[in-house]
Design a protein that fits this description.
The complex is a heterodimer of chains A (about 300) and B (about 300).
Chain A lengths: L13 H7 L5 H29 L19 H9 L2 H32 L5 H11 L4 H14 L18 H12 L3 H9 L4 H12 L1 H17 L2 H6 L8 H12 L7 H21 L1 H12 L3
Helix pairs in contact in A: 2-13, 3-13, 4-7, 4-10, 5-7, 8-9, 10-14, 12-13
Chain B lengths: L1 H4 L8 H37 L2 E2 L7 E2 L3 H8 L1 H33 L3 H16 L2 H11 L6 H8 L14 H11 L2 H11 L4 H9 L4 H12 L1 H15 L4 H7 L15 H11 L3 H29 L6
The chains are: A mainly alpha (about 300), B mainly alpha (about 300).
């Protein structure tokens, strides 16, 4: 469970490792570092290029200079003028928060139900939870659309988040992993003190699984922020668009086949991405913890 | 885990407690049960029924038997989109696994503080919203002005037309997908750090080479994680949608690369929500479901041969 437990596994130092192993010469050490830096550059350069191009004036967007000259901050103002950016951002933040909070609460409840209690059919039901992860979303896409249609929620933000009120298999699995690591004595003690099951959940289980809840919140917020398919299906009104849906509209209008004002498209891409970069740097530890837990067997 | 299971209770109270606990447990998991019925199981049945109908939302579904499935066999775009999806999956899954594994091994040899920097660098693409990825890569892959062909030019290679040449559209998309392997890298990195160091020391005394250590110790010890990512990546790659839809579909539809980027789920989406052939799209969805199930079962069956679980 504990990620830090792997500490001793890490080779003493970078240099030692490289020096003492079969790579003995300074030359091969250098090659190793160069390869590492080269690969890193491959991953980073597209971002730098995106930011650089988003700050170029239109006639220079296509050139290959890394430093824009002149720096066209106006591109960002152009995005602001061309589309209801603030409304889209508000929609995205609203949907992201609701989706994340709904999924944290519901999955925590469900995961607690699956980890603390023993009841007939538990393993079968939990197997079913895991099984739904393999179900392609396309299978339920149309009937779920019909459900929201019946409820009068087409062209509304509700379908983008409200399903999260009913849990989500992957996060149930993730939170159950965390709950299972809590010692059972804690709960037994509370029960002797007369706590109800619900109290055991929110007074004991929740405070001890804050990390898990933050992990789930961040993951779902990020997923919701990037979501395109649902917003294509459910949102027709321009003012209801989320940022990804809006960016797609911008690309269609100003990009390929459109007005060829790429500087606007690129500036908009940066705007949509930056909040995620900030989220990542704020919650880096939780991202890593979440992903690492994912890859581990239950 | 065992703490929760190995508890002994007085026999007599079990039935009462059991009842109470079962009720409470059902209460806790009831959100999922309701959701499962309303948003998963019910829709599955509905979708199976719809696949036997002609349905355009406006009028009630008209039962047509297996017509949709017969139509699938005749539709050249079904064959094309299935081919495209498999082409992508067959390139993406092994390449993503190898690339991620190589990078994880390299990162594992970097001291912890520096590793944080590289890890961030490799993970940044994975936090980029898929629409932004699609937009950015439409540019990177542009044959004239894109960074990739300029880079190739720099080393003397005349790069292909990644976004219009039917032979190169899918490799371009695979390239884009490899840029986002950050999540897989981190899963492998976490697994690598849990391999007991003693194993390497013991084998070194026995004179094992680095490569031998990698194939005989590292790979078996992290095979559980590799298996997990293989399953997830296979299922995911057959359902790729957002990035590719962003690049080649939507209102403009001007790009010439369209047909070679028509993946199965994209075609399904268009049939359902652009042409309103909901019955036909439902039949497509069930074909996809069966394919995913079969592939997963095959992978699980083969896993017994090569996946090592501790404690077995």
């Amino acid at each position: 469970m504990n990620i830090e437990s792997g500490k001793t596994v890490i080779p003493t130092t970078f240099w030692n490792k490289i020096y003492n192993n079969n790579t003995k010469s300074i030359a091969s050490k250098t090659i190793y570092i160069l390869v590492l830096l080269f690969v890193t550059a491959l991953f980073i350069l597209p971002f730098l290029w995106l930011i650089s191009a988003s700050l170029k004036i239109r006639s220079e967007v296509f050139n290959f200079e890394w430093i824009p000259d002149p720096v066209a901050w106006i591109n960002y103002a152009k995005v602001w003028e061309a589309v209801p950016l603030l409304t889209w951002a508000k929609n995205s933040v609203l949907v992201g928060f609701l989706a994340a909070i709904a999924v944290v609460v519901s999955c925590s409840l469900v995961a607690f139900g699956f980890s603390y209690f023993r009841f007939p059919g538990r393993d079968f039901l939990f197997g079913l939870v895991l099984g739904t992860m393999m179900l392609p979303g396309a299978v339920t896409l149309i009937p779920v659309y019909m459900v929201w249609d019946k409820l009068g929620q087409i062209n509304s933000l509700t379908p983008l988040w409200a399903q999260n009120l009913f849990g989500s298999a992957f996060y149930i699995f993730l939170m159950r992993q965390f709950f299972l690591s809590l010692p059972r004595e804690l709960f037994e003690a509370a029960r002797v003190d007369g706590a109800s099951y619900l109290q055991m959940w929110y007074k004991i289980a929740l405070p001890l699984t804050q990390t898990a809840m933050i992990v789930v919140f961040i993951f779902e917020f990020k997923a919701s922020w990037a979501e395109l398919q649902k917003s294509l299906i459910y949102l027709q009104n321009n003012m209801l668009f989320t940022l990804p849906r809006g960016l797609k509209a911008i690309l269609d209008r100003f990009g390929q086949g459109g007005e060829m004002q790429w500087e606007i498209v690129l500036a908009a891409s940066v705007i949509v991405t930056i909040p995620m970069v900030i989220l990542f740097f704020m919650g880096q530890r939780y991202f890593m913890e979440g992903i690492s837990t994912t890859g581990r067997k239950g | 885990m065992s703490v929760l299971q190995n508890e002994i209770r007085p026999k007599k109270r079990i039935s009462n407690l059991q009842k109470k606990e079962t009720l409470a447990a059902l209460g806790f998991i009831s959100p999922w049960i309701i959701g499962f019925i309303v948003f998963t199981f019910g829709p599955m049945i509905a979708s199976l029924y719809l696949s036997l109908t002609e349905y355009d939302i406006l009028r009630p579904p008209l039962y047509v038997g297996l017509d949709n499935y017969a139509q699938l066999l005749k539709d050249p775009k079904i064959a094309k989109s299935l081919y495209n999806s498999f082409f992508y999956a067959i390139l993406h899954v092994p390449l993503a696994t190898i690339v991620a594994l190589a990078m994880a091994v390299v990162l594992n040899n970097v001291p912890r503080r520096a590793a944080g920097f590289f890890r961030t660098a490799f993970y940044l693409p994975s936090i980029t919203p898929s629409v932004a990825i699609g937009t950015l890569w439409l540019w990177l892959l542009n044959p004239r002005i894109g960074l990739i062909n300029r880079g190739l030019e720099f080393i003397g290679i005349n790069g292909p037309n990644w976004i219009a040449d039917p032979n190169w559209v899918k490799p371009g998309i695979v390239l884009m997908s490899l840029w986002s392997v950050g999540g897989t890298i981190i899963i492998y990195l976490a697994a690598l750090r849990e391999v007991p160091k003693e194993l390497y020391e013991a084998s070194r005394i026995d004179g094992a080479s680095n490569w031998k250590q990698f194939t005989k110790i590292t790979l078996p010890m992290i095979s559980g994680s590799i298996f997990f990512t293989l399953i997830v990546n296979t299922i995911g790659s057959l359902q790729i949608f957002s990035e590719v839809y962003t690049m080649y579909f939507g209102q403009m539809n001007a790009s010439t690369g369209t047909d070679s980027a028509l993946f199965f789920v994209i075609y399904l989406f268009r049939q359902a929500f652009e042409f309103l052939n909901m019955g036909y799209a439902s039949a497509m969805a069930w074909v996809l479901f069966v394919i995913v199930m079969v592939l997963t079962v095959i992978q699980m069956a083969f896993s017994k041969r090569w996946v090592y679980y501790e404690g077995e």
